[in-house]
Structure to design on (801 residues):
């Protein structure tokens, strides 16, 4: 494989395009509402109508508006299309398509009419998006490498191997201002530089695809929709830091992502884009999959590496950081799925282009999974700095059934709740952490007035309690006690002293836990206490015993404790 | 080997660059309370009792796994650290069923001793009273999970000193449990060599010699140190 071969594949693929393309969403969300049946029915309908030479039915990745799935969109090329094409080149979008609708959809290509529900590609949900990571999502067929190559895939890897030194690659990533998309926002270029500078005969690149936050599905969608963009990003990273072996740690709950990754790796190897002598250069790079067995803590980098090594997935103290001593005690670069998916576009379009998007300290875009009490649930990618209000109200359509938004939860169990009156906050790393939340990996759960914030805090505390690995005491036993106190508050059995105890535990668990799971486990409690303290106070009962003094007899109780 | 100079609790201390804060402090006669640490076995930084404050570092660092560095300023004792240490102990006492009065290790227990020395005089958290089993299937030793604090000392000595690999941890969170082989009765283990190092390592009364009754379970920690010294330095002295 050299650049001419690559261009030939791309040209052949583009030339084979038919007049109409029916793009049918084949990501997990739409498949669960029978998009496989829709695709088969569409293929049959095309055959029955004798349009096989004019129409391609293409299974594509996530088309973003998950709540209206299965989604089908029709593209046309050339003049004289019989379907209406909007000014920006968008064909009609159909929502909630069933296999029975297939014949009438195909009939529209011959001037027929259909009653299938029409979506609006001009809705702000679509138009306010800026796609870098998801640029191919919903367009390329994730199970065919040729489809990715036709969308300029693997060009960046070629350019890197043939025209750039590892140092130049790292400089480009540094200049782009890209920060880790896993949640903490560590500068990606700096991390790459550290791994590159650490001398070692063996280095590793790991892609963290153990997305576990409740309500988050960004990484899954990227892997299901455009697996090659992640592979290409990893290969570029491996060349930059001097690694020859990569691992993708993906959770077993994502079977479709796993199967598409396996397909993608096999195809890339067949074409010589992975394996020995990539692009006929001296660069070798293999990628293996490691399947997580269902532990949230394995998304923590040191626990993840222990799990890859076949050990019990528990974190270890840092330093040493993985960049110096990670997998099998070798320098290891570990980045999130979305971070890797940003790399090829940065190389192709340049650091300056990427740095021109977003805010001063947070560059580029961020993918969010919109979920909860919101009209348009689905996947969005917006430039950093977009106000939360734009995301949840303009794009997301606000709360359904005329409800009012009360808060937006970001960052999952490590994050916090942002109240409705702070919705004008721009979404970037610093602004969110100022509000006691975090950017996180991109889960965004919208809550309306029917949500009790103490319930929310308890839900996340229960999650952390169940997912604590049990290694360090503050996280293992502290989350149990915090969960217990939250239950007590919700059962209207707690007094102000219990609330103080809860706050004291929050401080202790945050400051003494071994890894990020424990250190951030109190965040949902702290942020709901900060913005919705009254909801906690309203649930408390009077403290009839008065403050208890250890070792001294207090005054006898005035009455039985309130129940 | 290069030396590093640092300050621990205002005292100038020099230590080898490979030393941990805990080793440097111990050499200088400064006591840092520990629980999961055991001389001779590698450290995991799990119990968080030995957390110390280091100037210029926002996070508290475990003394047992943090290496010394030049000019480091360490504080091993402060009101805040004492409070966190007491709370950690309170959490442990509330977590499982620690009843000193009827425990084989009463008077020889590191958990009990720490509670005394750190001034933990009562537990403010709700006792969990979990149901844990006692494994008395082994011919020589017993394991009472009610008294286990999951420090994993037994696991570490079993794997890294004895090399048998009998002991391990299963489950997660509060349901974590020390197991033998593939989570089977200890007495049916094929790998256990009956060496007793796990019993010697246990800080509480969770692992004990059969036949020991209340307060009788004394540990001989020098045995572990003896083996490690013999193996690493080829010196047959404790």
């Amino acid at each position: 494989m050299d650049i001419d071969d690559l261009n030939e594949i791309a040209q052949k693929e583009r030339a084979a395009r038919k007049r109409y393309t029916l793009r049918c969403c084949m990501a997990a969300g739409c498949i669960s509402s029978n998009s496989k049946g829709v695709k088969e029915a569409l293929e049959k309908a095309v055959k029955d109508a004798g349009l096989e030479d004019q129409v391609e039915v293409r299974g594509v990745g996530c088309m973003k508006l998950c709540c209206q799935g299965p989604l089908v969109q029709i593209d046309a090329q050339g003049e004289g299309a019989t379907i209406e094409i909007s000014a920006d080149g968008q064909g009609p979008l159909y929502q909630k398509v069933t296999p029975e609708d297939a014949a009438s959809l195909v009939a529209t290509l011959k001037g027929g009419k259909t009653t299938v529900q029409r979506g609006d590609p001009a809705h702000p949900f679509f138009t306010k998006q800026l796609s870098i990571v998801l640029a191919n999502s919903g367009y390329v067929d994730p199970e065919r490498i040729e489809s990715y190559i036709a969308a300029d895939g693997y060009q960046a890897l070629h350019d890197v191997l043939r025209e750039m030194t590892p140092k130049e690659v790292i400089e480009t990533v540094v200049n782009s201002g890209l920060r880790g998309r896993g949640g903490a926002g560590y500068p990606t270029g700096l991390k790459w530089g550290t791994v590159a500078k650490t001398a070692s005969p063996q280095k590793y690149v790991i892609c963290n695809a153990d997305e576990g936050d409740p309500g988050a599905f960004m990484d899954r969608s990227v892997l299901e929709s455009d697996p090659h963009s992640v592979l290409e990003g990893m290969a570029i990273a491996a060349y930059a830091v001097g690694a020859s072996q990569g691992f993708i740690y993906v959770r077993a709950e994502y079977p479709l992502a796993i199967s598409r990754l396996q397909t993608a790796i096999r195809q890339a190897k067949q074409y010589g884009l992975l394996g020995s002598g990539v692009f006929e250069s001296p660069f070798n790079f293999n990628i293996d999959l490691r399947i997580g067995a269902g532990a949230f803590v394995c998304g923590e980098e040191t626990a993840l590496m222990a799990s890859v090594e076949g050990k019990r997935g528990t974190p270890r103290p840092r330093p040493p950081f993985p960049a110096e001593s990670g997998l099998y005690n070798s320098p290891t670069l570990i980045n999130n799925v979305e971070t890797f998916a940003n790399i090829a576009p940065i190389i192709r379009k340049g650091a300056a282009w990427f740095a021109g998007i977003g805010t001063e300290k947070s560059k580029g875009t961020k993918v969010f999974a919109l979920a909860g009490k919101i009209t348009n649930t689905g996947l969005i990618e917006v430039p950093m700095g977009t106000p939360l209000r734009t995301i949840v109200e303009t794009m997301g359509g606000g709360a359904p059934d005329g409800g009012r938004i009360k808060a937006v939860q970001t960052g999952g169990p490590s994050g916090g709740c942002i109240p409705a009156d702070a919705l004008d906050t721009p979404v970037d790393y610093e602004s969110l952490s100022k509000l006691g939340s975090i950017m996180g990996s991109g889960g965004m759960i919208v809550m309306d007035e029917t949500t009790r914030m103490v319930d929310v805090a308890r839900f996340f505390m229960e999650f952390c309690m169940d997912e604590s690995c049990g290694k360090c005491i503050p996280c293992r036993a502290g989350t149990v006690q915090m969960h217990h106190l939250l239950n007590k508050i919700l059962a209207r059995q707690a007094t102000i002293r219990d609330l103080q105890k809860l706050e004291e535990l929050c401080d202790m668990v945050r400051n003494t836990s071994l890894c990020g799971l424990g250190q951030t486990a109190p965040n949902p409690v702290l942020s709901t206490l900060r913005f919705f303290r009254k909801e906690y106070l309203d649930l408390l009962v009077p403290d009839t015993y008065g403050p208890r003094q250890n070792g001294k007899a207090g005054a006898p109780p005035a009455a039985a404790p309130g129940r | 080997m290069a030396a590093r100079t640092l300050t621990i609790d205002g005292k100038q201390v020099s230590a080898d660059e490979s030393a941990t804060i805990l080793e440097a402090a111990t050499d200088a006669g400064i006591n840092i309370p520990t629980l999961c640490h055991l001389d001779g076995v590698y450290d995991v930084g799990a119990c968080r009792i030995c957390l110390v404050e280091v100037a210029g570092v926002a996070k508290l660092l475990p003394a047992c796994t943090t290496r010394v560095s030049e000019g480091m300023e360490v504080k091993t004792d402060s009101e805040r650290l004492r409070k966190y240490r007491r709370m950690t102990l309170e959490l442990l006492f509330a977590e499982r069923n620690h009843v000193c009065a009827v425990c084989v290790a009463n008077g020889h227990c590191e958990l009990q001793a720490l509670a005394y020395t750190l001034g933990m005089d009562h537990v403010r958290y709700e006792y969990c009273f979990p149901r844990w089993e006692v494994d008395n299937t082994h011919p020589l030793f017993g394991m009472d999970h009610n008294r286990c604090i999951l420090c994993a000392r037994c696991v570490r000595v079993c794997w890294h000193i004895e090399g048998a690999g009998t002991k391990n941890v299963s489950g997660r969170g509060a349901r974590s449990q020390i197991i033998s082989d593939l989570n089977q009765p200890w007495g049916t283990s094929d790998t256990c060599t009956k060496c007793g190092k796990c019993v010697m390592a246990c800080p509480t009364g969770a692992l004990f010699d059969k036949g020991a009754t209340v307060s009788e379970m004394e540990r001989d920690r020098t045995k572990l140190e003896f083996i490690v010294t013999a193996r690493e330095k080829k010196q047959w002295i404790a």
User: Anything to note?
Assistant: Chain B touches chain A at residues 44-48, 51, 59-62, 65-67, 83-84, 87-88, 91-92, 94-95, 121-122, 124-126, 128, 149-150, 152, 168-169, 171-176 (CB under 8 Å).
